[in-house]
Amino acid sequence: MARVTTGYKDHIAYVTLARPDKHNALDDAMIEAIIAAGQEVAASDARAVVLAGSGKSFCAGLDMASFTSLMQRDLNSLVMERTHHDANAFQEVAMVWRRVPVPVIAAIHGACFGGGLQIALGADIRIAHPEAQLSVMEMKWGLIPDMGGMALLPRLLRSDVLRRLTYTAEKIGARQALDWGLLSELSDSPLTRAQELAAVIAAKSPSAIRAAKRLIAVAESGAAQADVLLAESAEQLELIGKPDQMEAVAAQLQKRSADFG
After folding, report:
1. pLDDT > 90? residue 224
2. What range does the record give for the signal peptide (predicted)?
3. Mind listing the domains of the chain with CATH numbers?
4. What are the beta bridge partners of residue 84?
5. pTM score, two decimals?
6. What gap in Å lies between CA 12 and CA 41, rounded to an integer?
């Protein structure tokens, strides 16, 4: 049975973790399927992505049965080799969503723990049910976040909050996670809200949305101010007067929905 399902409708890609009987816990097959789904979506003409989990949870983290088999393998190679750009396969389950060139919206419910939280961190926007629970859970197992968490968490959390969540592995409710910056918003129906937001994004200029995601990545990278300003100018130059931008202007002036093809 497929670990992840992928579908497309109205320029939106729908990626769903599909191991509900295990709360979408991560085993080798799931990790491979998530990366493959991200790569597929990245190569598509989708204009936005909705990332969700089937069943009772978004993703409860690493399948501990899988962790046992992991210990039988060459750990040095498995952990240290950069098999996906700057990441290993475990890190790529989160980072692949940052590599997807269009916005990714995670719809979170139930458990979002450990590796599951780090997958959600890879999304541009995170919408959660008020009763969802989140945890940087690795310390529970004597480990540290190693699936992209330390590349992503410091961009969202104050240092003291980051340290508390990492050191304690405590579970926090969605409202606390929202207050601390882990979430974008709460919704009683996070999947529906994610679909609504994806539709808004998909109706915008596809080339401008992609340019915006590239530019935000530069701005968040710690690049020098001069480099960020230069990137702004370079991206804008590629948009001004081009078909997507002209259609956006025409649609506004004519008070109609834009048609980007």
Report:
1. yes
2. none
3. 4-202 (3.90.226.10), 206-253 (1.10.12)
4. 87
5. 0.95
6. 10
